[in-house]
Amino acid sequence: MPKKYDYIIVGAGTAGCVLANRLSADPNNEVLLLEAGGKDNYFWIDIPVGYLYTIANPRTDWCYEIEPDPGLNGRTIGYARGRVLGGCSSINAMIYMRGQQSDFDYWASLGNRGWSWNDVLPVFKKSEDYQHGGDEFHGSGGELRVEERRVNWEILDAWRDAAEECGIPKIEEFNRGDNFGNAYFQMNQKRGSRWSASKAYLRSVESRPNLTVLTNTHVEKIALKEGANKLMADGIHARIESEASQLFTAKKEILLAAGSIGSPQILQLSGIGSGKLLSEKGINTNLNLEGVGENLHDHLQVRSVYKVDNTVTLNQRANSFFGKLAMGMEYFLFKTGPLTMPPSQLGAFAKSDEEQTSANIEWHVQPLSLDKFGDPLHSYNAITPSVCNLRPSSRGHVRIKSNDPQDSPAISPNYLSSPDDEAVAVNGLKFTRRIMAADALKKFNPIELKPGSEIQSYEQLLDAARNLGTTIFHPVGTCKMGGDEMAVVNDRLQVHGVDKLRVIDASIMPRITSGNTNAPTVMIAEKGAQFILKGESLT
Description:
Blueprint: E1 4-10, H1 14-24, E2 31-34, H2 43-46, H3 51-54, E3 64-65, E4 78-79, H4 101-109, H5 117-127, E5 128-130, E6 144-146, H6 154-165, E7 181-184, E8 189-190, E9 193-194, H7 197-202, E10 211-214, E11 217-226, E12 231-240, E13 246-256, H8 259-269, E14 272-273, H9 275-280, E15 287-288, E16 294-296, E17 300-303, E18 305-307, H10 314-318, H11 321-334, E19 346-350, E20 361-366, E21 382-389, E22 396-399, E23 410-412, H12 419-436, E24 447-450, H13 458-468, E25 469-471, E26 498-499, E27 501-503, H14 518-533
Parallel strand pairs: 1-2, 1-13, 2-10, 5-6, 12-26, 13-27, 14-15
Antiparallel strand pairs: 3-4, 7-19, 8-9, 11-12, 12-13, 16-22, 17-21, 17-25, 18-21, 18-24, 19-20, 20-21, 22-23
Helix pairs in contact: 1-14, 5-14, 12-13
């Protein structure tokens, strides 16, 4: 096995799979893809409802936990990150959501050239294989399959009617630039099976002779040397399973695609980051780059639970032997039914108050209820209309705990640490109550179990949000793009102050997109590959 490559990609998650596909398309490029997790051959990955068995499973999930968070009343919560080929796209909710036009126009307004909505829409379309064919907003023939749901629930249809009663109109779909309205989510599935980034981008090309994929390979740090005017990334120190550490050399570039937790961790272990932090952890500072690991933010969801009557939810079907049998038969015979469903099938976007310039809250409505993922479904019929703040102003960080690459970093999102985020959480709970009280849902006699109808004052609702709030697993921003003092990469995704090193994953987002983050991560990787192949550079 050669130890010198043109490109070394660190992380075979969503972004890494895209990069491996695009860069190895040129047979003259020798590409190495390194993945710390294993292969994506676990039975439950392909079955959409298998997220119940892949999240919090150390075979497929890094099983991180955040530090005790004051904004969550001192609670710590699980922070799932994919530990297999395909990364989070192998364990996530499969929701295809681009965000809104204003998200990308905001990125561009910061001076990031080529990142406006009009710039990125063609990139989204390029990667897409839309079930209904190509049009003004969609692409066909791309690698990433996008399909409609394959199961229906009476209670979700009624919830759509209730949302419309409350001023959130029914729309055909999201992803056209303005998501205000309510619609069923479209998903990265193909005929009822999960369509991960590994399936979409990697499997069809992994036999290319110029592409080497190594799993169970833990990156320790980046090898750096002095260049003509600045530091230069020369290679990667990595350990394959229990073997001794090896040095893999990159002739052209090293591409960090380890995600919003892994990428800043690797930079810090390599001596790139806050000099104060690195000194505390016994690491020599090669480059004092204060923004590495900072600017962490995420979508915090507040999960209300309502017991319902006169209808059937997944709770009833999954808690019955015959219900389970019927669901299994339907899936394996027809690839339809509840086993095809992500956690949430129905979504809605609205403003939490009239001062917002565009929709800033999103509901994920689930025809089920449980205390937390990994726990059994409740014995009674219930639904979970979960609401999240799409543009949080709270900021946290990811910081290494030691100089040991095997140590998980400290993850501190600092949820609900700003007055604005507190107000959005309270208004979101109040808006959810208005929808649940609408005429369209009266026949189902909804009873609020969480937070409970006795919770009424602003202070009580805020405390309930702190007790109920949990992540939707959308961490971004820890290697943000820009030109300010806290930016880590420029608008061509090159690390400031280091030659031959880019970060290409969700960590480069200056501000989180208004919705689920997997589709924007695909877009970021597509653009990153274009920059590399076209030789676009600011250095």
